[in-house]
Amino acid sequence: MAVDDARKQYLEKNSSRLFWIRALLNIKMLNIVLSLFYLSRGIALSEIFLLNLFWAAGSLVFEIPSSYLADRWGRKKTIMLGTSLMVLHWVVLFFAEGFAELSIAMIVYGVSFACFSGTDQALLYDTERELGREVTTLDALGKFHAAARMFKVVAPVLGVLIAKDLSPLQFRFLIGIDVVATLMAVWLSVRLTEPRHTMDVEKIESGIFFDAWRLLRNDALLFRTMLNKEVVFFSVFICWSFFQKFFFDRGISILVIGAGWAARHGVVFLYLWYISRFQKGKNLLVVLDRYNTWFLTAFFFFLIALFAYPQPILLFFLFLAFTICEGIRYPLFDEFFHKRFFSYNRATTVSLSNLLHNVLEFPLLIGASFIIVLDPRYTFLFSFAIGCIAVVFLSLKHLAEIRELKTI
C-alpha cells in the first residue's frame, strides 16, 4: 500500500523519536554507583539480587497483557504508558529508604519494561516496513540499540563526579536527572505515529496470543536462539549487579570505574551504530556464535587472573572486555527474531520470548544471592558456568537452516 506524503513525513520521524526515547530512558545516572546506593540504604549485597526479582515479578505479570495491548490497542499508546510508569519508578526511588520502598520501585520498573518489551522494536520494524525500507532493518536495529549507549558514554563519568562522596543528597541529584530525562521521553512518545500492522484477518480472529505461542512451540530454532541470548545475558547481568562494589573494595576509585564503564559503552555504541557495515552479507548464527566464543574466552582469562594474579586494573580491563562481547550481540538477535514473526503478533511474540527471560531469572538470581555470601569470586565462577551453557550446549552455527540466515 502506497504511503501518502503527509503520513510518510510523520512515519519518517518515528525512528529518530524512538532513538531519543531509548537514549533518554537509558541515561540512568545512578547505575554506575547503583550497588553502592543500595548498600547505603541498608541493603545487603545478597539482597541486591532479590531486588532484581521484584523487577522480574512486575515484568512477568504484565509481560503478556502489555504486548497484547501493543498489538490490539496500539504500539504508541503502550509506549506512552511505559514512559509514564518509568517516571513513577524514579520518583519512588528518590524517596526510598529501605528494602520495602526499593522493592516497590523495582516492581514499577518491571511493569514499565514490560510495556516496552517488544513494543518499541515492533513499532520500529513496522514503520520501516510501511516505508518500504525493510532491507535496512539491521541498520535501524543497530542504531536503535546504540541509542541506549549514547548518553552512557558520558553518564558514568558524570555520575561518579556528582556522587563522589556517596552522600544521600548526591544520590538524589542523580535520580533527579533521570526524572527530567524520562519526562522528556514521555513528551516524545506522545509525538510518535502508529504504523500499520500487516494483518491477516483470519489469523487475527484465531487469536494473537495463541498464534504467537504456536510459533514459539513449533520453531525449535527460534526457541534455541532465544535461550542462547538469555543465558549469556544472565552470565553478565549477575556480574554487573555487584561489580562496582567488587572493584571499589579492591582499591579502584569510583572515578576509574566510571571512566572504564563509559569507555565500554563508547565501544559498544560505535560498533552498534555501524553494525550493518561490519556484518553485511554474513551469516547471523555464525556471527552470534563467534561473539559468544569471544565473550567466554575473555571471561576465562578474567577468572585465571582473578585466582592466579588478582591485579585490580587487569581484572577490570578483562571484565570490560567480556561485557563488551556480550553487549554487541543484540541487533543480530533482533534481526533474526523479527524475520520470523508476523507483524500483527510481533510484540506478543517478543513478549512470550521474554517470559523465558523471567523464568530463568528467578533460579539464577536466587542462586547468585546465596553464592555471593560465601565469596564474590565464586559468583564469577557461577556466572562463567552459565555462559558455558550457551557455547557448549546451545551452539547455533551447526543448525540445518544456517545457509538461509544472512544479514542484509
Task: Walk me through the topology.
Layout: H1 5-25, H2 34-40, H3 45-72, H4 75-95, H5 99-116, H6 119-130, H7 137-150, H8 155-162, H9 168-190, H10 201-205, H11 208-218, H12 220-240, H13 243-249, H14 254-273, H15 275-279, H16 284-308, H17 312-327, H18 330-339, H19 346-374, H20 376-392
Kindly describe this structure.
This protein is mainly alpha-helical and 408 residues long. The protein has a single domain, classed as MFS general substrate transporter like domains (Growth Hormone, Chain: A), CATH 1.20.1250. The chain is built from 20 helices and no strands. The protein has helices at 5-25, 34-40, 45-72, 75-95, 99-116, 119-130, 137-150, 155-162, 168-190, 201-205, 208-218, 220-240, 243-249, 254-273, 275-279, 284-308, 312-327, 330-339, 346-374, 376-392.
What would a concise description of this structure say?
The chain has helices spanning 5-25, 34-40, 45-72, 75-95, 99-116, 119-130, 137-150, 155-162, 168-190, 201-205, 208-218, 220-240, 243-249, 254-273, 275-279, 284-308, 312-327, 330-339, 346-374, 376-392. The relative contact order is 0.16. It is mainly α and 408 residues long.
